[in-house]
Amino acid sequence: MSYAATNAVSRALQDVARSIEQQLKEASGELQGFTLLVFTDQVASYVSNVDRATAREQLRHLLALWDAGMPDIPAHERHN
User: Fold this and answer.
1) CA atoms within 13 A of residue 25's CA, in its CB half-sphere
2) What is the superkingdom listed in this entry's lineage (predicted)?
3) Which of 4, 38, 73, 74 is surrounded by the most beta carbons within 10 Å?
4) Banded model confidence at residue 80, pLDDT cuts 50, 70, 90
5) Is 17:36 a contact under the CB 8 Å cutoff?
6) Rounded (to 5) percent helix, strand, coil in the chain
7) What end-to-end distance do the CA atoms of the chain give, in Å?
């Protein structure tokens, strides 16, 4: 991916975030926090609707679960 593509992705992230936020709210009936990571050749970018400290905390929590061997099963299949 070129720097032009990386820049285009970076510019699009706020619109992508607004769309994700709206879709999650429609699905759940309430605002949900999220962080999206996007990898291009030059950089890993992120966009979030939570503050950076909360995003870091949740990412660390997820990584700890993965490190502990959490199975890769969607939540809707585990919580039925």
Assistant:
1) 9
2) Bacteria
3) 38
4) low
5) yes
6) 60, 10, 30
7) 40
Distance CA 59, CA 79 (A): 21
Residue 67 CB partners (closer than 8 Å, separation 6+) = none
Backbone angles phi, psi at 33, to 5 degrees: -80, 145
Please determine, for residue 79, whether its predicted confidence score (pLDDT) is greater than 80: no
Which pair of tokens denotes residue 75? 């939540």
Cα-based angle 67, 70, 72 (whole degrees, multiple of 5)? 115
Distance, CA of 22 to CA of 12 (rounded, Å):
16
Per the document, the length of the chain is 80
Q: To which H or E segment does residue 52 belong?
A: helix 52-67
* Amino acid found at 22: Q
Task: Give residue 49's identity as a one-letter amino acid code.
Answer: N
How far apart (Å, rounded) are the C-alpha atoms in residues 20 and 38?
A: 14
